Amino acid sequence: MFDPFIAPSGTLLGLLQRGRGDGTLHALTAPRSEALAALDHCVLRDPRHDWQVENRSLYYARLYVDLNGGLDEIEAHLFDVEDAFDTEESRTGLSLAVLGHLASYGRRDALDLLRRYAASGSNWAWALDELALRDDDAGLRALAAPVLARFGTDAEGEAELAAVVRDAFEPRPWRLWAEDPREYVSARVRAAQEAGCFDRWQRQMSPTGPRPGWSVRAVFEWAQQGIERGAALHVPAARCLTAVAGPEDRAEIVQAAQDGTDGARCTALRYLADHDDPQAPDLIEQAVATGGSVVVEAAVDAFERMRSIAAVDRARGWVHRPDALGAAAGRVLACRGTGRDRDLVLDALREAVRGEGCDAPTLWTLVDGAGRLGIACAAPVLRHIYRETASSHLRGRCARALAVTDPSFAAGFAVECLWDCEETTREIAARHAETGDARVVERLRRLAADPAEEDEVQTAVRGRIGPDAASAM
């Protein structure tokens, strides 16, 4: 999936794409047609860089409710001819999730669309999962025939059906169909359930990979086989070394970290770092200087896992390096540094924004570090990242850091965070937003009364407005 186009943060579309609370607040005061056009654009062209992690569906569904938006554009998107050719979940997943939340809010048109798509769409399994949480038994029973018709009755079709039943995210429809009075439905589903259980048992009884009694060399060879297949096995291989290696094997492991095959080298570095071996930092530095990309990445990851005082001291010396190890050193200080490292972490944060922009992966750890160390001087750059990043998770981390570094947070960003797309960000806002703002009190009461809101958010809300005020809504 290509990275989506993200509009500037100062536009309505850019705010909605980012899932910012200000997006909702602006949409509610903008011309309705303009707001709905921007909302449809977001739902039909998923703006998330990581659609499997970032939340947008409840955020967009709430805005459809507030704007009384129609679903014609979503319907056209779901049933477009492209659905038969582009079967990736990312094309329709957000639309289906939005429909699921709208169905929870009582939108019958959303429920009907989900039923139609589950019967005929390519991403039917996602639609079925949404219905499993929201539809009644009669609605789900009506889908048994069209869903089962997707699978042939030959051996291959039955095997595919068994795999789908075994891996179903929401098992309710399949359990309901297994008790269906129609024999051709219930018999086939029960057979698929039994086959799936047997397959799972077989896989558990026939594990692949290292077994008890393996030598250190055998573990290294297994890790190298993974490299040759394009699979990174050095992490589980390092865990295997912990089980099979003794003190007498240290020399062999150190030698592998110096000049072994890529698989052996990555495994040995990870093992030595996890055990805080005193020679690990030197071996990591050597690997970054002499290894290929796979070894360098493994070495950097291994260093970031070290917990010793010596590793933190080494990070202080490496933090100004203009390479991957220097960036990792900044993250180590952000995670495990002390008050004396505030300036180094702040410099690393500023340099990352200047060099890589507001969506750099390294910012996640550095932002957390700014909050952990209470770096008040970091507030301006944290506010900049908050505004510009396309990642709703990174924005939430900025909010958490601003809550402890920026005195203006409670009356500023915390207010808009009450409408944010991420529940963890809404929880932070519920704990900090200044209740002198009338919008805050009303929003807290609405969140407390919304059955779709997460428990953690509602707990935070009740801590601010009290259980009596919350229950009165």
Report on the architecture of this protein.
This is HEAT repeat domain-containing protein. The chain is 68% helix and 0% strand. The mean pLDDT is 92. With 473 residues, the chain is mainly alpha-helical. The chain is built from 30 helices and no strands. Among the domains are: 12-205; 208-306. It has helices at 12-18, 21-27, 32-44, 57-67, 72-78, 89-104, 108-120, 124-134, 137-141, 144-148, 155-167, 172-178, 183-205, 216-228, 234-244, 250-259, 262-274, 280-290, 293-305, 309-318, 324-336, 342-356, 363-372, 379-388, 392-405, 413-417, 423-432, 438-449, 455-465, 467-471.
What's the SSE blueprint?
Blueprint: H1 12-18, H2 21-27, H3 32-44, H4 57-67, H5 72-78, H6 89-104, H7 108-120, H8 124-134, H9 137-141, H10 144-148, H11 155-167, H12 172-178, H13 183-205, H14 216-228, H15 234-244, H16 250-259, H17 262-274, H18 280-290, H19 293-305, H20 309-318, H21 324-336, H22 342-356, H23 363-372, H24 379-388, H25 392-405, H26 413-417, H27 423-432, H28 438-449, H29 455-465, H30 467-471
Helix pairs in contact: 1-2, 1-3, 3-4, 4-6, 6-7, 6-8, 7-8, 11-13, 12-13, 14-15, 14-17, 15-17, 16-17, 17-18, 17-19, 18-19, 19-21, 20-21, 21-22, 21-23, 22-23, 23-25, 24-25, 25-27, 27-29, 28-29
InterPro entries: ARM-type_fold (IPR016024)
Protein name: HEAT repeat domain-containing protein
